[in-house]
C-alpha cells in the first residue's frame, strides 16, 4: 500500500474550493465557489479511505460509484472517472452543485465519523464533469434503432429529462411538454444562478435537443391538449410535473400587495438573469432593491430567496423561522452562506398578521418555543404568549414549501387517481398511475423532494416504461400475425 494514492486523510486536511468573498459575490448571480484546480481535486480525492462498505454510495439516492471515481481522480485518470460517474447519473455536474451533500454522501463519509472531515465529494463530482465538458468527453446523445413507438413526457424537470434521455437512447421517439418557455423546470427557474449557473442547465438541454428529443415549450396540458389526446398520440405517457402549488399562511392581511410567493420571486429573478423583459422588476412588485425584505420559511427555497434579495440590493433581509437553527430543514451550509452575505435570521418566530392597507408595511410576529416532538420527530413549535412584536417590511416572501396542483382537473383527466396529499397514486411495482400506459415519477409522486431523487425516479421509471412498451409492441405484432 506504500505507493497507493489513497488513504491520505490523516495527513491531508479537508478542503473545499475557495469561496469568493461575501461582499464580492453578493453583487452578482455567479456561483460563489471557484472550481478545483486539477492538483487540488486529486489531493482531496486521495483522502478517501476506500472503505469496505461505502456509506457515501449507499446514502446517495443514485448509488453513485463514489469511491471508485474518487480513486480514478486521485490517479489522474479523469476521463475514466467521468465515464464511471456518468453511468449512474444524467446530471453529475448539477448534483455536484446543488445536492445537500452534508445530508447525503459527505454526511455519511466514514472519515467524517472518525473526525477527519468528509471527502469533499460534491466538489470533486462537479470538477470531473465540468472538465469532461471542457475537454469534449461528453458524448452526444445517440438514439437507438427506431422502435416505431413514441413517448410523451409532461414536465421538463430533472425526472422528465432523465427519462427522456434514457428512452431516446433506447430508440423511442420522445416528446417533452412543458408549460415554461425554457426546459429545465426548477433547475432553470427555481434555483438561483449563484447555486447553479444557467448555462450549465442549458447545455444539458441542448444535448437532448441535438439527440432528437422534441420539446414543446409553453405547452399546457388541459389548455393545448387534453390528457386523452396525448394518450392517443403516444404509446406511453410520463407525468413528471413536480409540485408547484405554494403553501399559504392563514393570517390577517396575507393578501396585501407586497406579500408574494417564493417561486414567483425566484422565477422573475431567473428570467431577468436570462436577459428577459420582466415587468414585475420594472414595477417593483417582485424586486427587492431598496426594500426591507422578510422571508418566511426555513428550507432551501427560503435560503434562495434571502440570498437573491441581497443580490438585488435589498435594504435589509430577515428570515423568519418558527423553529431553531438545529431544527431547520434547509442546508446548514446555505444558512452559513446567507449569514456571511448579510442575512439576519430570526429564529423561533412565526407571523400572526401582515400590517398595511394599500401595501404591506410590516409583519406582526410572535416568539415560539419548542414543545414535545410531533409526527416528524421534531419538537413542535408553540406560541409564547405575550411575546408579540412587529418587523418592518416592504416585501414579504412566503417560502413554506410546495404541494401538488390538482392535476385531474387541470389535465381534464378525472380518472387520474390521487392520494389524500394530492400526489399521483401509482402502483409502486410499475410506477403506473390509474390510467393504463400513464406513468408518474419525481415530486408529483413523492412530494417536494431533492433533485437527486427526481433523477433516481426518472431512471427507475424508464425501466418500467420500457417493459410496458415492449409488451405493447409484442401484443401488436401478435395481433398482426393472428390477422
UniProtKB/TrEMBL annotation:
GO molecular function terms noted in the UniProt entry: 4 iron, 4 sulfur cluster binding; metal ion binding; oxidoreductase activity
Q: Which InterPro entries match?
A: DPD_II, FAD/NAD-bd_sf, FAD/NAD-binding_dom, GltD-like, Helical_ferredxn
Keyword DNA-binding present in the record's keywords: the answer is: no
- Domain FAD/NAD(P)-binding span(s) in chain numbering: 151-458
User: Which keywords, in A-to-Z order, does the entry hold?
Assistant: 4Fe-4S, Iron, Iron-sulfur, Metal-binding, NADP, Oxidoreductase
A Pfam family annotated for this UniProt entry? Fer4_20
Instruction: Name its co-factor(s).
Output: [4Fe-4S] cluster
UniProt keyword Oxidoreductase, yes or no: yes
Q: Show where the Dihydroprymidine dehydrogenase domain sits.
A: 26-136
Annotated protein name in UniProt: NAD(P)-dependent oxidoreductase
- Originating species: Sphingobium phenoxybenzoativorans
Top-level taxonomy: Bacteria, Pseudomonadati, Pseudomonadota, Alphaproteobacteria, Sphingomonadales
